[in-house]
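// run 5 | inverse folding | seed 20
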């Protein structure tokens, strides 16, 4: 489906002085509020992985939505939470430092009148920035329509938002209105990327994340926080991709659970990841998975960097 069909050609004036609107938009919020789901819906394909486990997104993921009116570059960040290790510090730092590096901030929240300590911490961060903030009340499909006004009112009392937009990222409700609001606050300028650019994520990274997503969804709650996926080899031959990947965990007991009785859990993770990998690569994939134990890797700068989470990134723009 083309972007023009998805979001229409009448969102805003197409040009002013011969220029489009183009800029960077970050999605922030507490873990599991639907940031990745919303971004995937807006760009029209799956780039960021999703699950019902907190802290699913670990890196800053950049995607590009090209429209007749301009170009929106989305930055999907890890959820802002209380860090418990170096990986947690890395994730929170990435999320918070983007606030002053973008043209618009989308703050996603749950549909509720309760504004807890986590939300208050984010409000404190937002009040320090001059960047326009659009509050997005997500998951409106889970509440009665008339209740949404009370949620809007509760948040409006907390700070002055440029816009408040209720949406359902899962069902796509009101996302066209959200795109209109975003474009309104972007600067005028040419496209920032080629029209066919969708993401800055390397293929190997997307493949690793798709495997991790299936592990997140299939494994018990205590294990997913302690896993990473490393692509050991990825080679193309005669129309098929040979991929060798390792799921890394922190304990021997976790290794047994990930492998499962007779290797059944590991096979299930592979069988669920393979179709999405093949869709992304547009070719068949021969996927081989292994499991290794790396004790306390989330507190090791060397191992974090090895798995794609560079601790030096925490020091940039701080």
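// decoded
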């Amino acid at each position: 489906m083309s972007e023009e069909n998805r979001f229409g050609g009448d969102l805003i004036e197409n040009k002013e002085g011969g220029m489009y609107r183009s800029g960077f938009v970050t999605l922030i919020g507490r873990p599991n509020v639907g940031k990745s789901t919303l971004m995937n819906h807006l760009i029209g394909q799956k780039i960021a992985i999703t699950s019902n486990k907190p802290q699913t997104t670990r890196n800053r993921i950049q995607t590009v939505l090209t429209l007749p009116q301009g170009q929106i570059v989305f930055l999907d960040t890890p959820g802002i939470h209380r860090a418990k290790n170096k990986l947690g510090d890395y994730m929170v730092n990435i999320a918070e430092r983007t606030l002053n590096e973008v043209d618009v901030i989308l703050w996603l929240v749950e549909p509720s009148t309760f504004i807890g300590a986590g939300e208050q911490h984010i409000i404190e961060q937002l009040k320090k920035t001059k960047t326009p903030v659009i509050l997005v009340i997500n998951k409106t499909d889970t509440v009665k329509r008339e209740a949404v006004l009370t949620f809007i009112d509760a948040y409006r009392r907390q700070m002055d938002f440029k816009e408040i937009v209720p949406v359902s990222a899962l069902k796509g409700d009101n996302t066209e209105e959200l795109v209109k609001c975003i474009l309104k606050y972007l600067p005028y300028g040419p496209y920032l990327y080629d029209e066919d650019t969708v993401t800055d994520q390397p293929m190997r990274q997307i493949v690793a994340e798709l495997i991790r997503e299936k592990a997140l969804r299939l494994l018990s709650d205590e294990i997913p926080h302690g896993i990473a996926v490393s692509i050991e080899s990825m080679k193309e031959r005669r129309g098929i991709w040979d991929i060798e990947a390792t799921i890394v965990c922190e304990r021997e007991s976790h290794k047994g659970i990930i492998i499962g009785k007779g290797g059944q859990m590991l096979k299930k993770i592979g069988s669920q990841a393979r179709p999405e990998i093949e869709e992304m690569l547009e070719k068949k994939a021969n996927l081989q998975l292994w499991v290794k134990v790396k004790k306390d890797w989330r507190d090791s700068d060397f191992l974090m960097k090895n798995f794609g989470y560079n601790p030096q990134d925490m020091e940039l723009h701080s």
